[in-house]
Amino acid sequence: MVYSFDEGKASMKSLLGGKGANLAEMTRSGLPVPPGFTVTTEACHDFFQAGNRLTDELLQQIHRALSLLEKEKNQQFGHPSNPLLVSVRSGSVTSMPGMMDTILNLGLNDETVEGLAAATGNERFAYDCYRRLIQMYGNVVLGIESFQFERLLHRMKKGLGVEQDQEVKADGWRKLIADYKKCVKAATGADFPQNVYDQLRGAVEAVFRSWNNQRAKVYRKINRIPDDQGTAVNVQSMVFGNQGEDCGTGVVFTRDPSTGEKVLFGEFLISAQGEDVVAGVRTPRAIQTLADEMPEIYERLVSVCRQLEQAYKDMQDIEFTVETGKLYILQTRNGKRTAQAALKIAVDLVDEGVIRQEEALRRIEVSHLEQLLHRGLEESAPMDVLAKGLPASPGAAIGMAVFDADTAEEWHKSGRQVILVRPETTPEDIHGVLAAEGVLTSRGGMTSHAAVVARGMGKPCVCGCEEIRIDLERKTMLAGGRAVREGDWITLDGVSGRVIGGAVPLKEASASDELLRILGWADEIRALRVYANADNPEDARIAREHGAEGIGLCRTEHMFFAPNRLTAMQSMIMADSQEDRKAALDRLLPMQQHDFEGIFEAMDGLPVTIRLLDPPLHEFLPNVEELKQKILQADSEAERDRLKRMIRKVHSLEEVNPMLGQRGCRLGIVYPEIYDMQIEAVFKAALAVIDRGGTVLPEIMIPLVGDANELKVLRELVNRVADQVLVADKKRDCLYKVGTMIEVPRAALMARHIAVYADFFSFGTNDLTQMTFGYSRDDAEGKFLTHYLDKKLLPHNPFQVLDSEGVGQLIELAVQQGRSLKPRLKTGICGEHGGDKDSIAFCHQAGLDYVSCSPFRIPMARIAAAQAAI
Ligand code: PEP
Ligand code: MG
After folding, report:
1. Which of 241, 246, 486, 658 sits at 20 to 30 Å (Cα–Cα) from 93?
2. In the record, what terms sit under GO molecular function (predicted)?
3. Environment class of 441 (CB within 10 Å of its CB; exposed 0-12, middle 13-18, buried 19+)
4. What is the pTM of this model?
5. pLDDT digit string (tens) for 539-575?
6. Ligand 1 near 517 CB (within 6 A)
7. How far, in Å, is the centroid of ligand 1 from the Cα of 856?
């Protein structure tokens, strides 16, 4: 359950956690890593199983590893004159930056602190370490809020009349330690533990427990990290960056994590400990200035960066410390990066011959690609620039300023767009960052918590904006001589670091050269075709620009919801006779035809799947309460009569379960004239476009089929109308298909029979999920589904991620049955799942021909489809 750093290696990540495995690998390759050991993720499982307790067996193993470490360091844990000090840090299998806990300087107590002072000849340093230990231990292990310590620290500095921590002398720290101890006693009723073994035990337990803290759980949920992975604990001998001017600590990325450029990127602080950099308490200096301050260290660091990048074949995020002129590497991991940077780095690594195209594709995080479609500022718009900070995460965002994470979350829930403004963020603010459009902080550098988290989530972020003054109590910020209050609109530009008053218009992004290259590689590898769900010419155009190879779903009812069309639609529904209905439909026909022409033109030469009317008719009529109001306001008897008739019609169309009622093909069978009109519009539009020289491939799709006879009847209707419109040789120019959606479970079960009349199957997985689970797609989330997900009864929301185990079986069965009759039957998916990467992977495995998703998700789907094929 315990491995020394020289026993492990990089491939043992699931046992040692990412950090432990990398520390071991670096130790093996001779890099200057302070020695230590890793308590494994298996020990973490045992800890939970034993009821959040370290077993005696494990404690013995830890003590054994500790004595080996004592020998190696020639120091002793708890020794009054030659004390060994350690850090205790979490290290999960999948990196979760800043989400879990760390304790430094463990092993200090009233006695050993004197020993450390004597051994280093630096009393000030020793007491600074001790107060840090009490503060971190107090917070992480004993659960005392950090602001309690911060307040005491602030008061002490104020009393001494100093601003910076470095200005505090040994006496100041000594006094603060006395105050901290009182604080611990008051909060817990017990003294700060003087027994160093108790400290170690408490720290290891706390790190294991932190796996289940709120912010770690939220992070895992967002990033789909399994809850049962557990964390390892790394116990590492301390090196000190806070001993004086020949010491320091920093973070360096081997390439720029914002742009991907091949330059060292990072920050360091002279005379500081690790958490000072990441916590954003002091604003650090750029790594390049280290070349002047400590030229030899800088050179060594550059070579370590090169070595680590070559070993891991990826951009590294490295933590280092300089202790009295010697460089130590404390950690390396694959660095988090923006989408732009991810693409540039992947493409550059392929060009540099380090990785292959497949590997580059595999590394693209599909969720990050959305960042590339992030918007920028409309630069020609007038701008009231209030301040400028560090451009920490690209993209532009507008929203109302809020000054705490809870308000950000509340306002977001009520539909408002917010920008979270904080002096700095801590992992406790993660729900606020999640809710916000963007994040602004007044302190902290490019590797501060806010910056790392925002980049990971693909949210614009400006940090270290020291020109603004934030008053958390009054919920205001002063910037550029003006006050911004809670609720005032502001704009952030994460590319330039500008903070702008008001809401500046934003413009959509366009694809970078790197993205185009990667997409090109993806297109060569993937088997699935990628279509778009698009209902109008504009969406079809955007979809094609993003690489759509056709339209997989055009929901024709969306065309009826425009105001002038709705009236025609309503008169059609209200018609008493078939003639009246026909007359109303005749008014709708040219409108539909016009839309279809636009879509065919945008998709010239590519298939366009047109789904005939699906929703129940009552959805096109106003609700009864609205109609009653209108009756009260009506100024003529005739108008009142019309409205009353409408109410009667609404009532007559009302159903207890409209989702299972007269919709889809059922509607088309009862009112064939509606489908008749739609089909006529499709073919007339096709003819018009063909006459203008276009190539049209219409695929008419029938919704909600559950029995072969439904499709048989409607296929005949399509053919009949086609024969009427496509006279003589026109039929040859317009090769159309007729197919069905498979969205009723019975359709999947009867697929062999249905295939007789179908040229294609398109899985409508929204309805198929609804009807297979028996969960209403409109109500489930608000009622019980969220609860189910919280309680982990289901791994994912099945309306977002396809339930491959259950619903997936129906899909596989239908594909197999359909193809047993027609081996080349075209199959695809057009429910929301068509834009989800895991669902796309399933579709690939199930052997579908295409996925269809919204236009903006198409680049993502192309990459996900390639990843599925690798
Ligand atoms: C579906 O049910 O998956 C589908 C695409 O149709 P709609 O969402 O329009 O019901
Ligand atoms: Mg449907």
Report:
1. 241
2. ATP binding; kinase activity; metal ion binding; pyruvate, phosphate dikinase activity
3. buried
4. 0.73
5. 899 899 989 999 999 999 878 876 678 888 888 998 8
6. no
7. 18
Residue 299 annotated as lining a ligand binding site: no
Are the C-beta atoms of 129 and 137 separated by less than 8 Å? no
Q: Inform me whether the pLDDT recorded for 279 exceeds 60.
A: no
765 annotated ligand-binding residue: yes
**Amino acid letter at 566?**
L
Superfamily of the domain at 2-239: ATP-grasp fold, A domain (3.30.1490.20)
Q: Is-same-fold flag (2-239; 526-616+655-869)? A: no
Which one from 374, 449, 753, 844 is the annotated catalytic residue? 449
Is 694 annotated as belonging to a binding site?
Answer: no
Catalytic residue status for 651: no
- Which atom number of ligand 1 is nearest to the Cα of residue 831? 3
- Asked if residues 560 and 566 have their Cβ atoms less than 8 Å apart, the reply is yes
The beta strand positions in 423-524, using DSSP E, are 438-441, 461-463, 469-471, 476-479, 482-485, 489-493, 498-501, 506-507
pLDDT digits (tens, 9 = 90+) for 156-207: 999 999 988 878 999 999 999 999 999 999 999 999 999 999 999 999 999 9
* Longest CA pairwise span in the chain (Å): 103
Establish whether 63 is a catalytic residue.
no
Instruction: Report the separation in Å between the CA atom of 865 and the middle of ligand 1, taken as the mean of its atom positions.
Output: 21
Separation between Cα atoms, residue 801 and residue 809, nearest integer Å: 15
Q: Which two tokens stand for residue 794?
A: 């289901």
Inter-residue contact 457 to 435 (CB < 8 Å): no
pLDDT at 408 over 90: yes
Q: Which residues is 418 bridged to in the sheet?
A: 400
| Structure tokens that stand for 752 in this block | 């062999």
Percent of the chain past pLDDT 90, that is, above it, reads: 71
| Cβ 425 under 6 angstroms from ligand 1 | no
Domain regions of the chain by residue span:
2-239, 240-337, 374-507, 526-616+655-869, 622-654
Ligand 1 within 6 A of CB of 830: yes
Domain covering 374-507, topology? Glucose Oxidase; domain 1 (3.50.30)
Supply the pLDDT for residue 177. 97
In eight-state DSSP terms, residue 446 is T
What Cα–Cα distance (Å) separates residue 716 from each residue in 408, 593, 660, 688, 738? 56, 21, 25, 23, 10
Model ipTM?
0.99
Superfamily in which the 526-616+655-869 domain is placed by CATH: Phosphoenolpyruvate-binding domains (3.20.20.60)
Contact indicator for 252, 287 with CB cutoff of 8 Å: yes
Query: Given a cut of 60, is residue 7 above it in pLDDT?
Result: yes
